[in-house]
Backbone:
């Protein structure tokens, strides 16, 4: 069983990132459980969405640590700090997340999103990072086919590719 | 044909209801149940059914009652505050023996509470929320697959026993997405209609476990439906002891006497050998089951009981399972409601210990249950 968590601030599309990831994993043939926690506000507040996947039925999706967590904003981090402390690898945006822990790796996510004019698609960049690190090109191809059927496909596919580039530059081997 | 889909519990409920033959939905949006309404609005016209967004929950439940008397399998969905508003209508449905299904996607309460956060605090409201002597059926699912399966069961029980059935899930299940197999070969039960000729009574039955045949409005039957005390033909009788006692007792017997028709509890481990038990319902059972397996691996003598029918509750069966244990752990996403049932099922020497956590969107983790079991076993 493996797990991925996306954390951030309301409005960053954290739940959508988990949704695309869960659909990608489902289309790859995995059993998947996706859970999320967010507030009533449309913008702001802490958001966590995580996915557990396995080759067999998921017995219990209520986990206390993640194999990979990607944090796009400090707001998403504080509430789940105990989970993150126990997690294996955490990738945080180098600008929007100030906290640092031993298991953290910084990545220039928002900086690259701004440079490539992909504002609003940082969540899909995070999907690209997660899929590249955990499952490689096959998962990226499946994620692309899912994004092609959603709104703003060109922008989101560029964001997905940006995520794979960032992941490769991190020099982490998780597969 | 069976197919594998990635669905939220709310979505699974819609597909289950439609597979069960539901053809009328009325509801009012409320987090975390609204996706049921959204998908019903999309899917119901495709199967030739009727979808109505009501002006409020009071209207919704009464529309569902009316549609059921019109002959359609009918349902609504809501969350705790909406269920509170529906109680008067649900009581009317109990008294008039109207088959219908209500899905409650539980969130924290009381009052508005935390709309987006899961809880299990509606158990007592679902079971006892109405005034008077009233009995209905309450089921609980643990994940999206079981939400699909049990909503079909809920319709079958509602139609067979002419009763409202409440299906409880929580926000974790409603919004959580998992792989669900839909379109399986399932048994679908339909309500018993009056015979074409001969004597029949719409509100009585020689066998108290069997529902009376149900005449439908607009189909040529003479139909009297009232929430006031009524005799076997539906005529009001608001004076006689005999009529009232016979009516409410029959409705009670119809529910309590049909325990064998209700979804059975899932029992893991050997009750005869167990020192400690875990009893739970709903999503929390998934953490509890992991805790059970881990504890058993470490040598703890455990039994695990997951209740799928919360009312009528088979106290005798539960008592037999818990007969030998010294402690029962009851994890709940509330301050403790099921724990009262467990206390009723065991003798006073058995320790009954709640693991209670509610609010903030936090589940009860296996580690928290394991800790309590270990402490209980040290004493």
Residues:
């Amino acid at each position: 069983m493996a797990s991925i968590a996306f954390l951030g601030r309301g409005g960053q599309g954290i739940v959508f990132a988990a949704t695309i990831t869960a659909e990608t994993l489902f289309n790859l043939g995995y059993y998947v459980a996706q859970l999320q926690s967010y507030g009533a506000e449309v913008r702001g507040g802490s958001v966590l969405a995580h996915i557990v996947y396995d080759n067999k039925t998921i017995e219990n999706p209520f986990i206390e640590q993640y194999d990979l967590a990607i944090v796009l904003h400090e707001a998403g981090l504080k509430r789940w700090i105990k989970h993150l402390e126990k997690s294996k690898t955490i990738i945080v945006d180098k600008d929007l997340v100030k906290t640092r822990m031993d298991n953290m790796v910084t990545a220039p996510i928002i900086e690259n999103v701004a440079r490539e004019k992909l504002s609003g698609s940082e969540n899909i960049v995070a999907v690209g990072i997660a899929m590249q690190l955990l499952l490689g090109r096959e998962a990226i191809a499946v994620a692309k086919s899912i994004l092609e059927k959603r709104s703003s496909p060109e922008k989101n596919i560029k964001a997905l590719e940006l995520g794979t580039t960032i992941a490769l530059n991190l020099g982490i081997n998780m597969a | 044909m069976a197919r594998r889909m990635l669905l939220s519990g709310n979505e699974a409920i819609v597909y289950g209801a439609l597979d069960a033959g539901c053809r009328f939905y009325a509801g009012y949006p409320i987090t975390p149940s609204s996706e049921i309404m959204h998908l019903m609005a999309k899917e119901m016209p495709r199967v030739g059914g009727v979808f109505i967004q009501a002006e409020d929950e009071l209207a919704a439940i009464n529309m569902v009652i009316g549609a059921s008397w019109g002959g359609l399998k009918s349902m609504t969905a809501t969350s705790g505050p909406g269920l509170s508003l529906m109680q008067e209508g649900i009581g009317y449905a109990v008294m008039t023996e109207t088959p219908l299904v209500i899905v409650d996607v539980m969130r924290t309460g009381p009052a508005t509470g935390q709309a987006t956060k899961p809880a299990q605090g509606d158990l007592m409201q679902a079971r006892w929320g109405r005034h008077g002597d009233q009995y209905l059926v309450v089921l609980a699912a643990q994940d999206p697959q079981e939400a699909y399966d049990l909503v079909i069961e809920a319709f079958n029980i509602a139609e067979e026993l002419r009763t409202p059935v409440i299906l409880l899930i929580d926000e974790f299940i409603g919004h959580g997405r998992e792989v669900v197999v839909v379109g399986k070969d399932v048994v679908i039960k339909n309500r018993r209609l009056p015979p074409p000729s001969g004597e029949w009574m719409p509100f009585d039955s020689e066998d108290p476990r069997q529902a009376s045949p149900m005449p439908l409005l607009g189909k040529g039957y003479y139909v009297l439906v009232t929430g006031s005390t009524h005799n076997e033909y539906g005529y009001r009788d608001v004076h006689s002891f005999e009529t009232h006692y016979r009516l409410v007792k029959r409705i009670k017997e119809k529910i309590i006497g049909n325990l064998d028709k209700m979804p059975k509890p899932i029992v893991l481990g050997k009750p005869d050998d167990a020192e400690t038990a875990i009893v739970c319902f709903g999503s929390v059972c998934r953490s509890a089951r992991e805790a059970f397996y881990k504890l058993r691996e470490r040598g703890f003598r455990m039994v695990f009981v997951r209740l799928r029918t919360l009312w009528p509750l088979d106290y005798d069966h539960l008592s037999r399972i818990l007969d030998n244990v010294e402690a029962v752990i009851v994890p709940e996403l509330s301050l403790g409601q099921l724990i009262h049932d467990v206390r009723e099922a065991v003798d006073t020497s058995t320790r009954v210990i709640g693991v209670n956590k509610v609010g903030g969107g936090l589940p009860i983790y296996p580690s928290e249950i394991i800790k309590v079991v270990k402490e209980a076993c040290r004493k």
Q: What stands out?
A: Chain B has a mean pLDDT of 96. The radius of gyration of chain B is 21 Å.
